[in-house]
Amino acid sequence: MDVVSEDAASRARDYEDKRRDYAQAGIPEYWIVDPAEPKILVLSLEGDRYHVAHEAGVEAHAASRVLPGFEVSVEAVIRPTRP
User: What's the structural domain count of the chain?
Assistant: First the structure.
């Protein structure tokens, strides 16, 4: 699970570089927590690439496909900033 940083270089690293690196390492599932969106992407490794298995927004839960029964509330992980 990676939490995306705000700057453009970090966003590219988390969404592109790490995605490629983790796929090459054979990691079966990769979660991207993006506070700026706010959302959690659950990516599943299919062959040599990740595909979005689940995308959860603030009022939803993100669920693992690798660990049956494991899920988290997006709002509990990403607390939206309130003015």
Answer: 1
Cβ neighbours of residue 36 closer than 8 Å, sequence gap 6 or more: 4, 6
The mean pLDDT value of the chain amounts to: 91
Burial of 57-70, coded b for 16+ CB within 10 Å and e otherwise, reads eeeeebbbeeeeee
Is residue 83 included in any domain, yes or no?
A: no
In this structure, are strands 71-73 and 2-3 parallel, antiparallel, or unpaired? unpaired
* DSSP character string of 21-68: HHHHHT-SEEEEEETTTTEEEEEEEETTEEEEEEEEETTSEEE-SSST
Average pLDDT of span 31-52: 94
- Domain housing 48: 2-77
